[in-house]
Specification:
Blueprint (H helix, E strand, L loop, with lengths): L10 H9 L3 H20 L5 H20 L8 H22 L18 H17 L2 H12 L4 H8 L3 H21 L8 H7 L2 H5 L5 H13 L1 H15 L16
Length: 254
């Protein structure tokens, strides 16, 4: 298939061609973005073999998505990187659940292990969520979760009663949790899916307004992709060692 006009050298034209069945167009996209994809992968994993596997899996997944008529219309590289990040995260969670052993020492508490790459990813999600909070919520979270101040200690400084400070801190924690979960949602192309995707964190935490809750249920009834996204972040929310399940360090934004 020949890509007409000036679109021949643009990602937009190539994406349209792939959807129309032109596999060679995807080869061009691969050549154009392969180097950048490898650099991005090295920020997630460090073994060259793991990088090659992650890059190959990412390009294959995006190709299948495009051939199914979904995926990006523009901004191919951003979509590629988002897909790679989510594949890495899914792999890390899957591998963490596997146990390769032939003995019964599983009941020995031993030393806890934290995957450094997964920990970096989680921290980046948490930091991005923290930066999106209103300043007042960030202040009360910092004072209670990091500095360890009690509502009674903060009340005079904030001009509130201790009870009001406690309520504000609770709302801030719930807001942070919703925004943190939201970082795990891949950006969708369909407008209604984008609307739903921006609210899946609130859906999981039960924080949607009644009208939005009804619209979300209606959307999820027919959209399997958004149901999949919802299931993914529900799993993240339920992870035993997920951020903010207990008190955690909150990094200064910036």
């Amino acid at each position: 298939m020949t890509i007409p006009g000036n679109d021949a050298d643009s990602d937009t034209g190539l994406l349209a061609a792939v959807r129309a069945g032109d596999t060679a167009a995807y080869g061009t996209l691969y050549e154009r973005h392969h180097t950048a994809a490898r650099k991005f992968a090295f920020g997630l994993v460090h073994s060259p073999a793991d990088v090659d596997d992650l890059v190959a899996e990412t390009f294959a997944k995006v190709f299948a998505t495009l051939r199914a008529g979904r995926g990006p219309l523009v901004a191919f590289r951003a979509y590629l990187h988002t897909t790679m990040r989510h594949l890495f995260y899914q792999r890390a969670r899957r591998d963490r659940r596997l146990e390769f052993t032939d003995d019964l020492t599983r009941y020995d508490a031993g030393e806890p292990f934290t995957d450094p790459a997964l920990d970096r990813l989680e921290r980046s999600f948490a930091a991005a969520a923290f930066r999106q909070l209103p300043q007042r919520w960030r202040d009360v979270l910092w004072q209670t979760e990091v500095e360890g101040n009690t509502p009674a200690e903060l009340a005079p400084r904030m001009g509130l009663t201790p009870n009001a400070v406690a309520v504000l801190a609770h709302r801030a924690r719930e807001g942070l949790r919703s925004l943190y979960l939201q970082q795990h949602v891949t950006v969708a192309e369909h407008p209604e899916c984008r609307w739903a995707g921006e609210r899946l964190g609130g859906q999981v935490r039960g924080r949607l307004a009644t009208r939005d809750e009804h619209r979300m249920r209606t959307h999820l009834a027919w959209c399997s992709e958004c149901r999949g996204r919802l299931a993914e972040i529900r799993e993240v929310d339920g992870l035993r060692h997920g951020p903010y399940r207990q008190r955690h360090h909150v990094e200064t934004p910036g």
